[in-house]
Design goal:
This protein is mainly alpha-helical. The protein is built from eight helices and no strands. The radius of gyration is 23 Å and the shape is globular. Keywords: Membrane, Transmembrane, Transmembrane helix.
Length: 240
């Protein structure tokens, strides 16, 4: 009879790795991807809420306005998930205040660029001015700076990169918006930027939480939460 192999113990089925679960960095990566879903839902909810008054009071065609932000969200969804997965696996958690603030800035720039890209396609389809071609290099450099800011270990350099990216994105977006020249498109761009800020805040909130205590920066200890005060009715019940 052949000797039995010494296998690591498991809790019923599967391998030891499955029993131990995912490594902390992969749990954080998965958590960051999950919060991209939440950020996308926040983006679409804010867009819908902000455009409803235009439909009710101004009698504008809101459904044509929804097409631009929705299409931009669909285009950016898959790259955002990939970026969140890579970013989550390579970084530690950060303070909620810092993460939500940075997420708001980045979300605004990304949403503005995404909507401007949809407008750029419409301008080119209608045979607009050749000035529209300026959008592509400006948007490409702005996007590269955003990626650099996300993965940069130097927070000061990352902040400067975001400022330059925001300036380039503003110029690129204004070029195509001016060439289109309609109030509906301008309103859609503003609404898209506001919704992007809400989505970025949501993603930043998840970035600060994903991974649990194992993904806190070295030497950082999470502060214990304060116990909730019991309600008045509960105080009486506990006293009895």
């Amino acid at each position: 009879m052949a000797p039995k192999e010494n296998r690591p113990a498991t809790n019923g089925s599967g391998t030891a790795e499955e029993a131990q679960g995912l490594a902390p960095k992969y749990r954080r990566s998965f958590g960051c991807v999950t919060w991209i879903y939440m950020a996308t839902l926040a983006f679409l909810a804010v867009v819908s809420l902000l455009l409803m008054p235009l439909w009710y009071f101004a009698d504008w065609n809101v459904f044509s306005l929804l097409e631009g932000p929705t299409l931009a969200a669909c285009i950016l969804f898959l790259p955002a998930m990939i970026g969140a997965a890579v970013l989550g696996a390579r970084t530690y958690r950060s303070e909620k205040k810092v993460a939500t603030r940075n997420g708001t800035y980045l979300g605004t720039v990304i949403a503005w660029l995404g909507y401007a890209f949809i407008v750029y396609l419409e301008v080119r389809q209608t045979g607009g001015s050749s000035l529209a071609f300026l959008y592509l290099p400006l948007a490409a450099v702005s996007s590269a700076l955003i990626l650099y800011a996300l993965f940069s270990p130097n927070s000061e350099r990352g902040r400067r990169a975001v400022l330059v990216a925001a300036a380039l994105a503003l110029v690129a977006g204004l070029i195509v918006l001016v060439l289109d020249g309609t109030g509906l498109v301008l309103a859609g761009a503003i609404v898209s930027a506001i919704a992007g800020a809400a989505a970025g805040w949501t993603a930043g909130f998840g970035y600060a939480r994903a991974g649990g205590t194992e993904m806190l920066p070295p030497g950082v200890v999470e502060k214990p939460r304060r116990p909730r005060r019991p309600r008045k009715g509960q105080e009486g019940a506990s006293g009895a």
